[in-house]
Every structure is written in C-alpha cells, then in structure tokens.
Design goal:
This protein has about 400 residues and is of the alpha/beta class. Helices cover about 35% and strands about 10% of the residues. Strands 3-2-1-4-5-7-6 form a seven-stranded mixed sheet. Helix 3 packs across helix 11, helix 7 runs antiparallel to helix 8 and helix 13 packs parallel to helix 14. The protein is globular, with a radius of gyration of 22 Å.
C-alpha cells in the first residue's frame, strides 16, 4: 500500500544500525506502524514484534503481518469457492514459496469475490465513484461496486461466525491493498485526480498479504504517547509523523474500508462524510507530533521518548521535519542516561522529497514552512535521519559479551 513515509527502502539500514548498537534479538516494538513494513521485516528476521498505530487501516496490516501463523482455509465458506479454479499464483505475495500451495483456498475465494459475487452499488459507489451522487473520482463505478460487495460479504461472514478473526484481517488487508492499486490519486487520499488515470481504470485484483514466517507478534490500535509506558522491549523503532500533514485526513478512504465490516451497516459512517473528498471525523486522532503550535510537538516527543523502557531506540526523522536535529539529539541523549551524545549515533540517508500536486514547484513544506536545501542539493534532495540511541546498561552488556 502507498503510505507516506513508508520505510521499505530503509529496512536494511534500520537493521544495520540496530545491530551496531548491540541488538542481537528479542522483542521489537514498532511505534507508528503505518503500512506495517518494518514490523513485518523484523518478524522475518526472527524477532517477536509488537506494534501500534492509531489508524484502523494500519491495524489491518499489522494484524495480517504479525499475527498470521498459518495459511487461511476459509473452510466455513467452502461451499462458495470449493468448485472454482484458483487464480494465478502470481496473486500470492507469500515470500516462502514452499507455503504457496497452502494458499490455494485464498486464490479460489478471490476468484469468487472478483468474478462470481454480484457487484453492489452501495456506499462506496455512491460516495467515491464518479457515477455516484457525490461525484468523487477515487474509484471507477465498477471497482467501487465490486468493493461494496466484498466488504458486505466480509461483514456478513464475520457476524455469522463462518470465518475466523484472522481470515477477516487477511481479506481486509487484501481488499485495502487492491483498492490502493486502482485508486485515482497521486500519492495520498487527500485529493482525487480530476480525470481517471489509466491505473485507476484497471479491474480490482485481490492479492494475498505478504505474510512472512517468524514468531507471532501482537498488533494494537493505541495512542503511542500513552501506550509506550507499559511496553517492555529490547529494540524500539520510532518513525513519527514529521510535518503538519495529519494521516487521518490523508488516508480516510482506507480508513473507511477498514471500519465498514465492523459496523452494523454502512449508514453510520456514510452519514458522517463531509467535504469535497468525503472525509470522516478525524480530529480525535490528530497527533500533537504534527503541531507547530508553540512547543507542542517537542513536548509530545519528549513524553514519548522518556516513556520508553527499551534498551535501544532507532529513530527515523526527516531533516525537513518540525523538530530540529539538535532537539532530537538532546532528547535521545538524555534518554540514554549520559546526556552527552556518547551513546548516540546518526546515519544520514539521502532520498527524494515527497511533494503533493499542490506543492509542485513550491519550496514550502505542508503547513507553510519554507524548506531550504543544503548547499549543493536541489529542492527535492533531503536527508532521512536515522538515530540510534543506547542505554548505558546495554552498552556495558554488549562490551561484556564481546
């Protein structure tokens, strides 16, 4: 799924800096889990992962990636798909090829959902397709009606108890990911494109979530600022929002998809929609880490870091973020018990700056901050800061082991 700030490209660097600080295994905590890619990666490395994110659509991917321990059988609804041909194996994102045969029921059920379940001109068709009354151009009418039918089916199966909880999460992750591939957007869901792009005109295709083997973990839908105080872990990975772009306002459609199967009907959510893009109320999920009001962001970050009970913190942040490098170094240095920076290292990784369509040609970040690139760099060249901080006690342990 397209997710602002996704760290898939940095996974090897994250693991490398963690190991350089003495990480040899044990529980990893992934705060602000987002797309779930970091937690999924550490599970594949043999770590137990616990994670959280306030976004419900993030919880779906966390549940699929961290808590799936076997392939789904969908035996409770086999009468619907049992006689159908499985879709092509290319639909399987399962990395362990030896497990692919176990996912054949998923491919047969996907065939049913795509080709045999009648489309339904429901909530998504009305509100998020150009053929609906609202006229929003996020999905084609055909794809919106298909997703309406799939989500209604998942809801009915969940309520009647013919699918397991884990099968629900797997189907939801597959559905949200499929929608994301045909969504008529340029990056986030903060706006739809005025005309349908070619990728949005493709038919919906369900694929399995990219499940990896590893110790089962635990997914959560909690506020990281409060939840972190009760978490014990060896390694804490923190990838907080860094600018004023609030995620709930930019991922409202995936959020709606994640919520619908757990509502009695579509009406409760549909009647709350507002604005040009069909937002749902989100202010209760707004993060103070996105705030430029006074020192609100700094105080929230201080609370988060001080509440950590980890031995090692790996912290990702963009140089164009709200907080300055010196502020982050002080917070992490104080946490490491030294306050001198002796237990703190920084790796700077170049990447291309994200800009929404409205920001093209502008030197301003979301919220109006003017971004000034370092000498010799273009406006689109920025650095990702990857801090690694270690407790004094952990440094002594590593020295003794070596």
């Amino acid at each position: 799924m397209r997710w602002l700030g996704n760290k898939t490209a940095l996974l090897d660097e994250i693991l490398s800096v963690a190991r350089s600080a003495g990480y040899r295994g044990g529980t990893v905590c992934d705060l602000f889990a987002g797309s779930g890619s970091v937690g999924r990666f550490f599970r594949s490395q043999g770590s137990r992962v616990i994670s959280t994110d306030l976004m419900s659509c993030s919880l779906v991917f966390q549940k699929a990636y961290l808590e799936t321990i076997e392939a789904p059988t969908f035996s409770g609804i086999e009468d619907l798909w049992g006689g159908l041909e499985p879709l092509d194996l290319s639909r399987l994102s399962v990395l362990d090829e030896g497990q692919r045969s176990e996912w054949i029921p998923f491919l047969q059920l996907a065939n049913y959902l795509e080709n045999h379940l009648p489309p339904q001109q429901g909530f998504l068709f009305r509100q998020f397709s150009p053929e609906g009354d609202a006229g929003r151009i996020y999905l084609t009418g055909e794809n919106a009606a298909r997703v309406d039918a799939i989500l209604e089916a998942i809801r009915n199966w969940r309520v009647s108890g013919v699918v397991t909880d884990q099968e629900v999460w797997i189907l939801l992750a597959s559905c949200i990911d499929a929608v994301d591939r045909v969504a008529n957007i340029s990056g986030t869901y903060g706006a739809f494109l005025k005309k349908l792009q070619k990728s949005a005109e493709r038919p919906l295709e369900l694929r399995s979530p990219a499940i990896v083997p590893g110790p089962p973990g635990a997914a959560h839908n909690e506020d990281a600022l409060e939840w972190i105080n009760g978490v014990e872990c060896e390694l804490l990975y923190i990838d907080p929002p860094y600018n004023q772009r609030q995620y709930p306002a930019n991922y409202h459609l995936p959020e709606i998809l994640s919520l619908l199967p757990f509502e009695d009907s579509d009406q409760k959510i549909e009647e709350t929609l507002y604005g040009k893009t069909g937002l749902i109320p989100w202010k209760e999920k707004a993060s103070p880490l996105c705030s430029r009001r006074g020192d609100e962001c700094l105080r929230a970050m201080q609370k988060l870091i001080e509440g950590s009970n980890a031995n090692i913190i790996v912290f990702s942040y963009s140089e164009e973020g709200i907080l300055q490098r010196e502020q982050l170094e002080k917070l992490l240095g104080d946490w490491s018990d030294s306050g001198t920076g002796a237990n703190l290292n920084l790796v700077e990784i170049p990447y291309r700056r994200f800009r929404s369509d409205s920001e093209e040609g502008s030197s301003q970040t979301p919220g109006g901050r003017t971004f000034k690139p370092a000498p010799g760099r273009s406006m689109d060249e920025v650095q990702e800061w990857l801090f690694v901080a270690t407790r004094k006690s952990n440094i002594e342990r590593v020295r003794n082991e070596s």
